[in-house]
């Protein structure tokens, strides 16, 4: 268990405060005190901000009022293009506070009258050239050069008066623009002082709150971090991870609950893991069963034609590559239709089962037998010569004949077989090889049935 160095350094006074600090009452009280200080500071700051916004709004409204008043007074002279009268009007408004300058321009942006006490002649006039690109009638905070101060810049249209109401486009009634600058230095100075005071108070509150916040947050976050690390280890697969917190308050209760939950999850994990292994084994077993059923003929239990064709392709490739002899036998029940007609299909199925059982009993482990058609069977025999295949077919025919003598004494049910063999130099395709053995079977039937015929190359 890791020991917090902070707790070791403050052990002397920590023991005296342990009883108090172990309860959530102290923590909640400290948190509430910090919250009250924060809310008080926020409300104080918000009040200053709202006062600033209110003052700024009034200041903006006053600037717009000045612009509207000058625009209304300048409209007759602008309509008459009396630039001397416009100059007199501009000079009258810049004789004292609060206007720094007044510029009057025509629609082309040319200044026709100006009065400027900023000492930076032409600043307002330059803005007039792009007046139609600037927000008209909206005060814009600006700064004078050479540290002369800040002002509100307002560009306002000079309209022709009531006559502009008779036109559809109000823009056609504009005679020109005025550009004024309203001094903001006094307002800014007052609120700068208030802002400095508010900042000082806020800093003092923060500095006083840091020790309290540090103690509070540390007592809460340290055990929470321990529990978080344990939960992370547990999620990564360390099911032995447990919380070592032994506190008696609500955090201690949470820690014990987390350990109990971890015990239950670990136990369930072992159970689920065991069930999952069992399920995987069952699925694998069932998959193998289904795969085997998909390869088998449902009546005889021999492989079906599809599986046999896959084996044939594999064995023929092996025979061609390594020069291994490969034989194939096709067996057909002679006059099987007569058995179904005379004795019924259940007896016909019994005959098929007998044939498949005898064929399976005579095969080696490497041989593959399949039901190829209704009453046709086919056997693939790797590493087998034609003579071996003939001997095998004769044994099967004899045993089948013996079985039929007891099963259907008067039916005279027999087998015919065709043999085809691939030698070392053979170059047959799958289809050609099957055709070869099929032709051999037809030859056996042509000889009178119950015969064995061969075809090899």
Describe the structure in brief.
It contains twelve helices and ten strands.
Fold and architecture overview:
This protein is of the alpha+beta class and 457 residues long. The chain folds into 3 domains: 1-223, PAS domain (Beta-Lactamase); 242-295; 305-456, 2-Layer Sandwich (Alpha-Beta Plaits), CATH 3.30.70. It is built from 12 helices and 10 strands. The protein has helices at 5-9, 11-21, 24-80, 83-93, 123-128, 185-235, 250-295, 305-322, 336-343, 345-362, 386-407, 430-446; strands at residues 99-106, 111-116, 140-144, 149-159, 174-183, 326-333, 368-371, 376-382, 415-422, 452-456. It has a 5-stranded antiparallel beta sheet. A hairpin with a 4-residue loop joins β3 (140-144) and β4 (149-159). α3 (24-80) packs antiparallel against α4, α3 (24-80) crosses α6 (185-235) and α10 packs antiparallel against α11. The protein is elongated and about 140 Å long. The model has no long low-confidence stretch (mean pLDDT 79).
